[in-house]
Amino acid sequence: MYFRQDFCEPGIRFESDAPDTGQVDHVITTSSAAVSQGECFLDAARTSPTGGGSVRIVRTSPLAIPAADMLHVGIDLEVRDIALEGNIAGYFAIGDELIHTHTLLPNASLFSKLSIDFKADGTYALRVPGSSGAILSDPLSGRIRITWVMNNKSDNLTYVSPLETSEDIAPGKYDVWINDLRWIKGGNAISRVSLNNFAFILSNGVGTVRLHHIEINSASPQLPLILTRFKAERHLHEARIYWEMAAGHTASHFTVERSNDGKSFEAIGTLPVEDPSQNLYGLTDPSPLAGFNYYRLKMTGNTGEVRLSPVDAVYFDAAAPAITIAPNPSRPERITLFASGINPENISLFTMTGHRLPFGHGYDNSNMMLSIYPSTPLPSGIYFLKIAQDRLLKTVKVVIP
C-alpha cells in the first residue's frame, strides 16, 4: 500500500515534511477556501467566487521507491452545498514532480487527471480529457466510489475490477469506474511520466468536496478468491454441488458446508486445490437431510483469506425408501420385498441389459411384505428392481440362482 487515509482519527496530522503512507507534504488554503476535518471525512470548500481562493492538497514525496509502474486508486467522495457552478471546479492528478504552489498543473507533469464539475442544479459530474474534447460523466449526486487504474508499464496490465472481474489495460492507458460501472475504458495518458505524486486541487465554483477515503495501491494482477458460479442440485437421492472460480484464483482449498435452517452450517467435505489453473470443481452430498438442505462454499486463499459464497438450497421430501429382499438369491417365480408404503405401480423389473419384464404382485399389509410374480419364471442371472417413491429412486439387485 502506497497511501491510505479515511480521516477517522480525530485531529489527524495530515500534513508532514516527511509524510508516511497516510500523509501529504502540503495542505494549502488561500483566500475564501478552507479545509476542515469531520467524523471520517475531510471537507475542501470554496465559499466565494472572488479572491482566487483555492485548496491544494499535494503529495510531492514519492509514493514508492522505485516509482510504481501501475496504480490502483480508490476515492470515496461527495459534492455538497454547490452555490455556484464551475467547470473543473476541482481535480485529482497523478504524475511526477508536481508543484504545490500551482493550481493549474502542467500537462507535461501529469499521467492522468480526473476533474469535478459543479452543476447549477446541485449535481456534479466527472470529467477527463479526450482526443476530441472533454468526456463528461452523467450527472452525479450523493456519495460515490471512484476506482482509477493506471498502467505505465510496457505491457498489458491485468487488474481486479469493482465487480471482481479480471480486466486488462494496455500500456499508457487508464480505466475509471464510478461505483460498479466502468465509465472510461482505456483512456490515454496525458504524458508518460512516472507515477510518483498525487494532488487534489479545488479552485473554481462555490461548493464543498467531501473526501471520505483515499487509497493508492499497486494494481496487482493477482486475482483474489473470485467465485463466478455456485450451484446445488438434486440428483436422485444425492445433492450435487458445483462451482466455478475466476481464472488465476488464489484458493488453496474449498470446504462445502450444509445447514438445515440456513443459519448454522457444518462442513461436509473439503477439496484441496492441486492445480491452480483449474476453474471447475464439484462435490457430492450422498446423504442429504429430509427437507431443505442449505449449501454454501467456504473458500480459503493461499494467504489464509477466507470468503463465503451465497447460499443455495435443495429440497428432499424424505429419505430414499428402505427395501429388503429376502431371500436373495430369490426364487425364479417369486421375489419377496419387505418395505413400507411402496406402491407396486412404482416398481419396475429389469434384466441386466435393461429389458423391462412384466410381473404381477401381492401385498401382505400385516408384515409389509410385497411379492413380485414374474410373468414367466426368471432364468438364472442378475436382475434389478427399481422403486420410485416421493420423487426418489432406489435400485435393488436381485440374484436368481
Short overview:
The protein is mainly beta and 401 residues long. The chain has strands spanning 3-5, 26-30, 33-38, 41-46, 54-59, 70-84, 86-95, 110-118, 124-128, 135-136, 144-151, 157-160, 166-169, 173-178, 181-188, 197-202, 206-217, 227-235, 238-245, 251-259, 266-272, 280-285, 291-301, 306-308, 312-316, 324-325, 335-338, 347-351, 356-357, 359-364, 369-374, 381-389, 392-400. The model has no long low-confidence stretch (mean pLDDT 90).
How would you describe this structure to a colleague?
The mean pLDDT is 90. Strands 1, 3, 4, 6, 11, 14, 15 and 17 form an 8-stranded antiparallel β-sheet that branches. The chain has strands spanning 3-5, 26-30, 33-38, 41-46, 54-59, 70-84, 86-95, 110-118, 124-128, 135-136, 144-151, 157-160, 166-169, 173-178, 181-188, 197-202, 206-217, 227-235, 238-245, 251-259, 266-272, 280-285, 291-301, 306-308, 312-316, 324-325, 335-338, 347-351, 356-357, 359-364, 369-374, 381-389, 392-400. It has no helices and 33 strands. The chain has 3 domains: 3-218, Jelly Rolls; 227-316, Immunoglobulin-like, CATH 2.60.40.10; 324-400, Immunoglobulin-like (Sandwich). The chain is elongated. It has 401 residues and is an all-beta fold. Helix content is 0%, strand content 54%.
Structural class: mainly beta
Instruction: Report the CATH C-level class of the largest domain.
Output: Mainly Beta
- Low confidence ranges: none
Gap from first CA to last CA: 75 Å
What characterizes the major β-sheet?
Answer: 8 strands, antiparallel
> What portion of residues is helical?
under 10%
Indicate the proportion of strand residues.
over 45%
